[in-house]
């Protein structure tokens, strides 16, 4: 079985490429601990105007994404042993909490050298990366080792499913509201050109800092989709760079189904062996065969997800998938740039409030601008 350290780092692979951070989500007690151990950000902290505008636009564009897929190349560096590992693969994401990433180590031709150089200008030793798959079906995460044909299963607590993935370690791959981002991260704009945007991110929370000491995110200036992400591991001696190619949002599901022959988020594990014990199995799973050593998940409350900034159709769908009832309420008319009609600007209960399935969430929407103000 993988060590906790290896598992921790492998989870970052999954989250970085799919924006699904469920494996590292902690329970309610850990969330409360984080609140006491993070460096608070002033509620009225003002970032440079350019960065504030980027964060707002990023959140709006991210709210339009229901599906995302593409290819990725991963470079893993060890600066102590001067090793570079190269992998490639595909990734898939579907709102609110499904994802898949296939990782295949690239063959290294004889005499090939790594891209990274040491202080003397000598290249790092180039090696193939790992061969693995990570699949999340919304209820569980499957870690699949292709080399020894084994897998592990990690159930996701009920309160951490769905839109609550924002509480994971790397949600900045999909823009969050500026106020939330400023509270959770130290942010710095490194570059803003017509082609790309680069933002440096440092965590305020101790739980985030345990996963990465710093990240740099490169976005397309037009689509706000990720071009590349660099993660500096704690300690600073290891780092991972992901570059993304052929990234497409909201593609028809038919192409994905045609590629895999069936739902890509349902793994075929007939020829794989289960590693270790499964502490619990999620309810309402759609696996073709039961998981061994499984016990029921204890029923717990959900946290109401953040819906502010989303259009009403997306907000309703996500909440209803989590088991909530919804009610739309007309609010104030659009009066300023950045305000979008029929998008949520107020919700009750507030995001993060514990709630049970079946409870009502009210969504207040911007309405049509007044005549002469559009």
Descriptive report:
This protein folds into 2 domains: 271 residues, Lipoprotein localisation LolA/LolB/LppX (outer membrane lipoprotein receptor (LolB), chain A, Clam); 66 residues, Trypsin Inhibitor V, Chain A (2-Layer Sandwich). It has 374 residues and is α+β, with helices and mostly antiparallel strands. A hairpin with a 5-residue loop joins strand 10 and strand 11. The strands form 3 sheets. Strands 1, 2, 3, 4, 5, 6, 7, 8, 9, 10, 11, 12 and 13 form a 13-stranded mixed sheet that branches. A 3-stranded mixed sheet has the order 15-18-16, covered by helices on one side. A two-stranded antiparallel ribbon has the order 14-17. The chain has 7 helices and 18 strands. The protein starts with a helix and ends in a 7-residue tail after the last strand.
What is the CATH architecture descriptor of the largest domain? Answer: Clam
What number of structural domains do the residues give? 2
- Alpha plus pi helix count: 7
Residue fraction in strands = 25-35%
Structural class: alpha+beta
Taking pLDDT < 50 over at least 5 consecutive residues as the criterion, the unreliable ranges are 1-38, 168-172, 255-260, 279-301
User: Could you describe the largest sheet, including whether it forms a barrel?
Assistant: 13 strands, mixed
Shape: globular
Radius of gyration: 21 Å
Measure the end-to-end span: 60 Å
Global mean pLDDT: 75
Helix content: 10-25%
The CATH topology of the largest domain corresponds to outer membrane lipoprotein receptor (LolB), chain A
């Amino acid at each position: 079985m993988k060590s906790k350290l290896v598992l921790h780092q492998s989870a970052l692979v999954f989250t970085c490429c799919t924006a699904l951070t469920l494996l590292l989500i902690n329970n309610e007690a850990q969330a409360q601990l984080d609140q006491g151990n993070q460096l608070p950000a002033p509620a009225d902290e003002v970032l440079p105007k350019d960065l504030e505008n980027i964060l707002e636009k990023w959140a709006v564009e991210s709210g339009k994404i229901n599906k995302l897929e593409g290819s990725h190349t991963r470079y893993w560096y060890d600066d102590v042993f001067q090793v570079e590992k190269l992998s490639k693969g595909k990734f898939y994401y579907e709102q609110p909490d499904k994802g898949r990433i296939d990782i295949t180590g690239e063959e290294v031709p004889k005499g090939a050298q790594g891209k990274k150089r040491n202080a003397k200008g000598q290249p790092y030793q180039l090696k193939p990366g790992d061969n693995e798959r990570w699949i999340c079906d919304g209820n569980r995460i499957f870690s699949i080792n292709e080399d020894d044909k084994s897998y592990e299963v990690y159930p996701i607590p009920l309160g951490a499913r769905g839109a609550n993935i924002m509480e994971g370690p790397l949600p900045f791959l999909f823009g969050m509201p500026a106020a939330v981002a400023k509270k959770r991260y130290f942010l710095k704009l490194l570059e803003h050109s017509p082609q790309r945007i680069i933002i440096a991110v440092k965590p305020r929370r101790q739980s985030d800092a345990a996963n990465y000491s710093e990240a740099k995110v490169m976005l397309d200036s037009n689509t706000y989709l990720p071009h590349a992400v660099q993660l500096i591991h704690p300690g600073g001696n290891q780092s991972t760079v992901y570059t993304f190619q052929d990234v497409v949002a909201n593609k028809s599901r038919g192409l994905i189904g045609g590629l895999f022959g069936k739902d890509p988020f349902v793994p075929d594990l007939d020829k794989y062996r289960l590693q270790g014990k499964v502490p619990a199995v999620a309810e309402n799973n759609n696996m073709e065969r039961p998981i061994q050593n499984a016990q029921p998940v204890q029923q717990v409350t959900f946290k109401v997800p953040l819906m502010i900034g989303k259009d009403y159709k997306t907000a309703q769908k996500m909440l209803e998938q989590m088991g909530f009832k919804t009610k739309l309420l007309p609010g104030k008319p659009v009066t300023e740039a950045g305000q979008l009609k029929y998008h949520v600007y107020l919700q009750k209960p507030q995001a993060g409030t514990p709630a049970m399935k079946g409870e009502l969430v009210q969504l207040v929407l911007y309405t049509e601008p007044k005549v002469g103000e559009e």
